[in-house]
Amino acid sequence: MCIIEPESFEEAAKDDSWKKAMEAEITMIEKNNTWELVNRPFDKPIIGVKWIYKTKLNLDGSVQKNKARLVAKGYSQKPGIDFNETFAPVARLDTVRTLVAVAAQRNWNLFQLDVKSAFLNGVLNEEVYVDQPSGFVMQGSEDKVYKLKKALYGLKQAPRAWYDEINSYFIKTGFYRSPSEATLYTKMSTSGILIVSLYVDDIIYTGSSKEMMAAFKDDMMRQYEMTDLGLLHHFLGLGVLQTDSCIFLHQKKYAKTLLDKFGLKDCKSVATPLAVNEKLSKVDGSELADETLYRQMVGSLLYLTATRPDIMFAASLLARFMHNPTKKHMGTAKRVLRYVQGTINYGIAYDKGKGAC
């Protein structure tokens, strides 16, 4: 199936489904009280905006929906004038794996919420103005601009503004933020414990009390526009399979994509990542390989180690030769991918414990 995403507003405006997607985005922006139409200021820079179009797919590859996103041209912003703080913490993979391990040991289920247009909830501290978007210019007010009350996607400070907003809400509602992981929150009560991990607009949560989890979900959906995704199935590019006996993390889809990308989709598999007594050196007498391709291959393998510790040593070894790799290094990298081909279903399984706290 061929997915065609518009590259411009003019192209999108010819398709009713994309027009509806843009209307839905404007509705969400106005519902969040993100901006107000004002006279164009003479002493303030006006930031441009543009439409970005993306087709969201289901796990089976079918079309879920067409999504239009209005983004600010943040690359034109000037530090100290248009923005100050930009850093926003995100959940580390180690934290997510630890949370999965705790949930498995305690025999808890993991659930997921998705915040719709999360950045539109972040309150701005700076005075920011943007142009009216294509297709939605107010008739009779063509010379006016929007003054932002809250952030738009694309602004340099948008991630920080959203994090400050959600962090403030969590603290206000009784959560304790981890001193070593700024996106991990816990809440204790006589009913039990609730643990929440935040990655931008994705929220995963687990705990010992079904009542606390239900109340948390209801509170969040009242406070923000949310999609309840139910049991956690996919997070940070990882597949999550929750069964009665274990929680299984895998990257099957990603591994298949790699094999296809590097032309090894139908390759013959091997039993081990490296050959017996494999030795690599910076100078091995063989010709130089394509450095860009090699780096892509090794970088992809390193990401795959998130759920594949069995290739960790091989990927780390190959990473030593990112500069001037030879064909021998390239051949070794391809061998690791051939091993992945034969072990595509491998991952990390966390056995569930018998008791809960």
Automatic annotation (TrEMBL):
<dbReference type="InterPro" id="IPR043502">
    <property type="entry name" value="DNA/RNA_pol_sf"/>
</dbReference>
<dbReference type="Pfam" id="PF07727">
    <property type="entry name" value="RVT_2"/>
</dbReference>
<feature type="domain" description="Reverse transcriptase Ty1/copia-type">
    <location>
        <begin position="32"/>
        <end position="274"/>
    </location>
</feature>
<dbReference type="InterPro" id="IPR013103">
    <property type="entry name" value="RVT_2"/>
</dbReference>
<protein>
    <submittedName>
        <fullName>NAD(P)-binding Rossmann-fold superfamily protein</fullName>
    </submittedName>
</protein>
